[in-house]
């Protein structure tokens, strides 16, 4: 079974990511975020370990092109609570280090701080999702712990990316102090995008979502373009004022940075 796959299996025309690969050390996710889009994976909120993971990872790494970029993880968080004891993600990083590939770690967890010394010895960046929406992310570390973790990433000399995603107009679009507190090297941001199941979960907390006239883009429901533009360009202006790069994720709007995800900050010269 392949454990490293080409990123963006949906081939979304709105995706502006550079060529990269996706790797999830775990199947499913324990954080239980109400807005999660990855529930196309069966029993997604039940975390599972992968059989023969390390052997399959070694095999897939041998077949990657030189200078490949791996994003870990875009579906299942690589640092669930059990990672403290299991150290599966850490072992995967140790294997990747031997292949000198580029790695973008994407997580909501402060457990990543444990591995900063290892990551500093690799061509890596760390992207931490911080939304200020703790009540919608019941099993993830609280906002302040994630801010401190991102500051530790930057202090370790590793490119630090803040993923301000999702942004919900009228709910957390004014929480720009998160950016100023963390002072990352790059911000990637995106508005809330809902599928049928995530809309049902989110509407239990925010009933007014059922009254929104969303724009349909494939399986997703987007806020109207004028709403998304207003929210995202406010964030963009704030980032530019404090000297932080910014990119948008699957929005269809232009942004000033060299990449949406901040991967341009990783050294790409062998």
TrEMBL record:
Keywords: Iron, Iron-sulfur, Lyase, Metal-binding. Residues 24-180 form the Radical SAM core domain. The keyword Iron-sulfur applies. Pfam families: Radical_SAM (PF04055). GO terms for molecular function: iron-sulfur cluster binding; lyase activity; metal ion binding. The keyword Iron-sulfur applies. It comes from the Archaea. SUPFAM superfamilies: Radical SAM enzymes (SSF102114). InterPro entries: MJ0683-like, rSAM, rSAM_sf. This is DNA repair photolyase. It comes from Archaeoglobus fulgidus DSM 8774. The lineage of its organism: Archaea, Methanobacteriati, Methanobacteriota, Archaeoglobi, Archaeoglobales.
